[in-house]
Design goal:
alpha/beta, Rossmann fold, two-stranded antiparallel ribbon, 9 helices, 10 strands, 34% helix, 21% strand
Length: 228
């Protein structure tokens, strides 16, 4: 879990963790491999990514099932690739896990923002990644779509695969139940890190967002507001 204000470095950190951006200093180890000492292409195949930036690269005319299948070959369109009945079955299963069975053959461009985001996450899971990176997955979603997505991410967090999930947000209300640890950023620096309850506190979030914040933990979820 990576939390911080706009411009704090969350997306940049995710890009480095996904081995798509070279760090300006220090070393980066992802899935037991040191960036720069291994073929990054092999490590990237073990990483799934989803978020609004990924959504923008998906072709509106394609169906969700086709878009999910293409992730097996790290593509965004079928092109010359041949997919098996097993590939289609797995894609349908992943979409079903996110409640997308009814629209799996609809054009991607006709889906709502919440549906598109769920397709994006299902697509990221197609290669069975060891690491899943989610960049503000609830951004732009209405309340109902957000809660539906968080319920599905809670289920995913309780699954054996992927082995680890990193979710970036600047709203603590968007942290699904089942996520265990947090890193809080401010101006590119770590303010705090560790288990959620000990890390997402009034003091830490007040420092990170530069306003007095009150935090409450209830029923496995976290809520925050500015102190009056």
């Amino acid at each position: 879990m990576v939390v911080g204000a706009n411009g704090s470095g969350k997306t940049t950190l995710l890009s480095v963790a996904g081995l798509s951006l070279w760090p300006t200093a220090g070393t980066v180890d992802v899935l037991g491999a040191r960036y720069g000492r291994v073929d990054a292409r092999g490590v990237r195949r073990r990483i799934g990514s989803a978020g609004s930036a990924v959504d923008l690269g998906l072709h509106d005319a394609l169906t969700p099932v086709d878009l999910v299948m293409t992730a097996r070959v790290a593509a965004t369109e079928p092109w010359w690739h041949v997919f098996s009945a097993g590939d289609r079955s797995r894609a349908q299963e992943l979409l079903g896990g996110f409640g997308m069975e009814a629209v799996s053959e609809h054009a991607f461009g006709t889906l709502s923002a919440g549906e598109r985001r769920r397709v994006s996450i299902a697509r990221a899971l197609m290669p069975d990644p060891d690491l899943l990176l989610l960049d503000e997955p609830a951004a732009s979603l209405d309340l109902g779509a957000r809660e539906t997505l968080l319920r599905e991410l809670t289920r995913l967090a309780g699954s054996a695969r992927p082995a680890a999930i990193v979710l970036v947000t600047h709203h603590v209300e968007e942290i699904p139940a089942g996520f265990s640890n947090a890193l809080v950023l401010c101006a590119g620096l770590a303010v705090a890190q560790g288990p959620l309850e000990g890390t997402l506190t009034d003091d830490v979030l007040s420092r990170a967002f530069q306003v007095p914040i009150e935090v409450r933990h209830r029923d496995g979820r976290i809520w925050a507001r500015q102190r009056g």
